Amino acid sequence: MGTGPEHLLDNGLGEAMRPEGRRPSVTYVRHEIEPTAEVATAFELHALVSGQVRQAIAEGGFPLVLSGNCNTAAIGAIAGTGYEGLGIVWFDAHGEFNTPETTTTGFIDAMGLAIAVGRCWKAMAKGVPGFAPVPEDNVVMAWVREVEAEEQERLDASEVAVVGAHLIEEQGLRALAAVLDDLRTRVGRVYVHLDLDVLDAEKVGKANEFAAEGGPNAEELEAALGMVRERFAVAAAGIASYDPAFDADGRVLRSAIASVRSLTGLKSPTG
Fold first, then answer.
1. Which residues pair with residue 88 across a beta bridge?
2. Helix or strand holding residue 163 (H, E)
3. What is d(CA 108, CA 243) in angstroms, rounded to the nearest whole number?
4. Edge to edge, what strands does the sheet with 139-142 contain?
5. What pLDDT does 224 receive?
6. What's the CA gap between 141 and 248, in Å, rounded?
7. pLDDT of residue 31
8. How do 139-142 and 161-163 pair as beta strands?
9. CA-to-CA distance for 117 and 77, rounded, in angstroms?
C-alpha cells in the first residue's frame, strides 16, 4: 500500500486536482529519525504531516493527504486542521477501533479512529503538534462491515455514529443523510477519511488485500461524498490503503479520482 499514493498521483489524481489550470503543490513526507520503530516512526510521520497540513491551510490550499495507511492520513491531518469545531466523517470497511489492550493482531493501523478520539496512544499523540481528541459524538463512520466482535461492542458503547453497510443496504443513503444532518447541528467543518477498501470488492474491485464485499459502488460513494460537501466545509481529507497491485483494471483508481472531484466540487475534464 506504500506504492498507492504515488500511483494515484501519476495516474490521474494529480490532473484531477488542477482547478482552472493551477498545478497542485505536492510534498512528500518521509520519516527522518533512525532507526525506524513502528510506533515511534508512525507518530513522527503524524507530526510531519500535521505541519504540512497547517502550512497548506495557511497558504489557502486544500490539504489532501495520500497515505499507505489510515493512521498517517488521519492523525496528522486532524492535528494540522485543528480539532476545535471539527467533526470526522470516516469511510472504511473496517472498524479501526482497536487499542493496544484489545488488539489480537498487533496491527497499529487498526487503531486509527481509536487514536483520533483519544482511546489509545494518548502520550504519543500529545507529541503531534496541534493534536487533541475529537469528541466521539462528532464522528460518523460509514459502510463499516468487517469488525471484530469485541471491537463492535466498543463501537456500540461509544458515541460514534456508525452507519453500517447493512443499514445503508436496507435504508439507502437516507440513513447516512440523517446522521450527517445530526452532526451538522454540532460542527460546521469536517475531516473526511476515505479508506479505499470501503468500496465493494465485488462491484468495484479490491483496493487492497483486506477489501471486502458489501460496500458502496463508485456512484454511491461519490453521492455520499457529495452529501458531506453539501453540509460541511471540508477542512482536509485523507485517502489511504490503496494497493495498485490489486487493481489491475484501474476501477478503484478511477473511483478514487471521481471521489476527490465529488468531495472538492471540481468538475471532470468533460464537465
1. 139, 191
2. strand 161-163
3. 18
4. 64-67, 233-240, 189-195, 86-91, 139-142, 161-163
5. 97
6. 28
7. 86
8. parallel
9. 14
Contacts of 189 (CB under 8 A, 6+ apart): 81, 85, 86, 87, 232, 233, 234, 235
H helix runs in the chain, sequence order: 4-8, 14-16, 38-58, 70-81, 112-116, 122-125, 149-157, 165-171, 174-184, 218-231, 251-264
Q: What span, in angstroms and rounded, lies between the C-alpha atoms of 21 and 10?
A: 17
Q: At residue 35, what is the residue type?
A: P
**Which of these CATH numbers, 3.30.830.10, 3.40.50.300, 3.40.800.10, 3.30.70.360, describes 4-20+41-264?**
3.40.800.10
The Cα 96–Cα 148 span in angstroms is: 10
Cell numbers at residue 152, please?
Answer: 463492535
% of the chain with per-residue pLDDT over 90: 75
The pLDDT assigned to 14 comes to 82
Where are the alpha helices (H) located in 31-89, listed in sequence order?
38-58, 70-81
Domain ranges within the chain, ordered by starting residue: 4-20+41-264
- Per-residue pLDDT of 39-83, as tens digits, reads 899 999 999 999 999 999 999 999 999 999 999 889 999 999 988
- 2's grid cell: 506504500
As given in the structure block, the three cell numbers for residue 187 are: 460542527
**How much helix, strand and coil, in percent to the nearest 5, is found in the chain?**
45, 15, 40
Here the cell at position 10 is 501519476
Q: Residue 239: in which H helix or E strand, if any?
A: strand 233-240
pLDDT digits (tens, 9 = 90+) for 138-168: 999 999 999 988 899 999 999 999 999 999 9
- pLDDT, position 270: 47
